[in-house]
Known about the structure:
Layout: H1 3-18, H2 23-39, H3 41-57, H4 62-68, H5 72-87, E1 95-100, E2 106-113, E3 116-121, H6 126-137, E4 141-145, H7 151-167, E5 175-177, H8 183-190, E6 198-202, H9 205-214, E7 227-231, H10 237-249, E8 258-264, H11 268-280, E9 286-289, E10 300-302, E11 316-322, H12 325-335, E12 340-344, H13 348-357, E13 362-365, E14 385-386, E15 394-395, E16 402-409
Parallel strand pairs: 3-4, 3-6, 4-5, 7-8, 7-12, 8-11, 9-10, 9-11, 12-13
Antiparallel strand pairs: 1-2, 2-16, 14-15
Helix pairs in contact: 2-5, 2-7, 3-7, 5-6, 6-7, 10-11
Amino acid sequence: MTLIEKLGQRAKKASKDLAGLSTTAKNQVLLALADGLIKASDCILRENEKDLLAASEHGISEVMTDRLRLTKERIQAIAEGVIQVADLQDPIGQVVRGYTNRDGLKILQKRVPLGVIAMIFESRPNVSIDAFCLAFKTNNAIILRGGKDALHSNKALIGVARQVIAEAGYSPDMVQLVEDPSHAVAEELMLATDYLDLLIPRGGARLIQTVKEKAKVPVIETGVGNVHIYVDKDADLEMAVRIVINAKTSRPSVCNAAESLVVHQSVVAVFLPMLEKALADQHPVAFRADERAMPYLTNATKATEADFATEFLDYIMAVKVVDHLEEAIEVINTYTTHHSEAIITQEISRAERFQDSIDAAAVYVNASTRFTDGFVFGLGAEIGISTQKLHARGPMGLEALTSTKYYINGQGQIRE
């Protein structure tokens, strides 16, 4: 029996035990987990240090290493996220709709768990706890396969979760970690149709493309963020500078960070020098600019076609100049990964046109794209940000991890 078969069988069994857990029981476990993470902080940080040391030895960039790094403050934030999930309304058992049909049948449509979820993700160890909490709150068992860069951190975090579950008297196999980081085992997980009801990849374009091509398990596509900000001719340029700096530099390694800047030709001569000067006081950004933007930037190289389609995850930004709103919409819809896009403008009709026309999960007016996040949207922790259109789109919270079932009660009716 292979590793994935063993994990799959355990998860199936655990999911049956999970199905009977009440909201109160689940919340008690989650609150105990939050407390357990704080108490285990020193141990977790020691294991995280092993991952950070390996990252340094492998030459991983500081920006990407930051995704991997845990601190006491970040562990505190993870614990607070667990508490937030405990505080959220439990969707399991909710009646979506109820009615009596013309045959006198009483029909209820209720939310139910999916069953067993798997997640393949990269680098960010907090994802393991976020994913577990959302799966557990919705009575789903979960199998997690993190990247090898965060293996020690993930083992420590999931170890705390399994211990808390066991101490509560339940099967710790409600959450399991694939500790073999090989591609072969990951690909076996993608094919585990006998055990998995859903697979969620969360990471870079290469990971998600691999899962899309090879998985036989149903997949929700998440994560890749080639995010654009369009600075319109009627933009408040000081506002635009603040928003672009926040969206690009506050945390460039995350999927809601801005990667491309589209600027109306009438403001480019004023806006780009303003932006570059302001960035010098925050963090310099290397621009990949088209021919029309180049004269207004000092730290720029000529952009290639590929630059406009790239999620840099670094202090790099592509810049394109356009003549009008419709061209901006066309450019963004050409290169978008359907994650988050923004317009900066004081003209309401143009803002509405942009929001209606852009094909993305989240479309902003006069705000940073960094807000695309399950916590910010009031969903609690997120298991990912769906960039597809079926079942779930945008930040995926509790409801995205449920299905529905029809409950039909009759009094002897037969169909004529």
